[in-house]
């Protein structure tokens, strides 16, 4: 049997470069997103089979609504198709899907497909796949702050209850910190992705466009991560 790779607990991927992948091939940007969706499914199945506990993916930022209406519509329809049909294979593989992000202004049919998938997979015990959709890290922190202020106003918590752990529990999902953040597509920035959870993450940037990210490169990145010396502020 092939040896399993040593994995971090929580990996995040900023899936960038779908558009450029398509343009390079004379295809439409939509075809790039379609190819990215296939890659996502394949990599999630691979990482789950390797035993990964948490995988967070940046699917659509709150700022992505500024894109051309046609592209936004294509992506929303693609999300529905993936969640309703193609993610059946993830369910079969025991993956539990959760979402992070704001509801507004997502269409009802998108919200329904998200809910359905979440409900269907809620008792699965494999990898937890956190899909950041209509997500912004600054909004997540603002929304958490509002929630804690409400609790404080209603005397449900005191100021001393507000600890880093309590903040984590009150973000969109209660997930452990990110250990490794991978960004494809050549840019070296966080773009508002899981700001709180990425505090002590290791970063890996690759020029590969997301649709071309494969198991081999992912394994290489994880092996590189395993060699890093994480000090968490100590020495
Ligand atoms: C960034 O590439 C990618 C996105 C904004 C969309 C990511 C979506 C997918 C991978 C499709 C499926 C997702 C799910 C959750 C089913 P870009 O379009 O900004 O590429 P560019 O920088 O080359 O233009």
Can you describe what's shown?
By secondary structure, the chain is of the alpha/beta class. It is built from 8 helices and 6 strands; from the N terminus they run E-H-H-E-H-H-E-H-E-H-H-E-E-H. The chain has helices spanning 18-24, 29-50, 69-86, 88-92, 108-121, 137-153, 164-169, 215-227, and strands spanning 10-14, 54-61, 96-100, 128-135, 180-183, 202-205. It has a 6-stranded parallel β-sheet, with helices on both faces. Helix 5 (108-121) links the parallel strand 3 and strand 4 (128-135). Helix 1 packs across helix 2 (29-50) and helix 2 packs parallel to helix 3. Bound molecules: farnesyl diphosphate.
List key phrases describing it.
single chain; 235 residues; alpha/beta; Undecaprenyl pyrophosphate synthetase; 6-stranded parallel β-sheet
Summary?
By secondary structure, the chain is an alpha/beta fold.
- CATH names the topology as Undecaprenyl pyrophosphate synthetase
Number of strands: 6
Low-confidence stretches: none
Helix content: 40-55%
Q: What's the CATH C level?
A: Alpha Beta
From the spread of the alpha carbons, the general shape counts as: globular
Number of individual domains: 1
Strand share of the residues?
5-15%
Largest sheet: 6 strands, parallel
Protein topology:
Blueprint: E1 10-14, H1 18-24, H2 29-50, E2 54-61, H3 69-86, H4 88-92, E3 96-100, H5 108-121, E4 128-135, H6 137-153, H7 164-169, E5 180-183, E6 202-205, H8 215-227
Helix pairs in contact: 1-2, 2-3, 3-5
Bound molecules: farnesyl diphosphate.
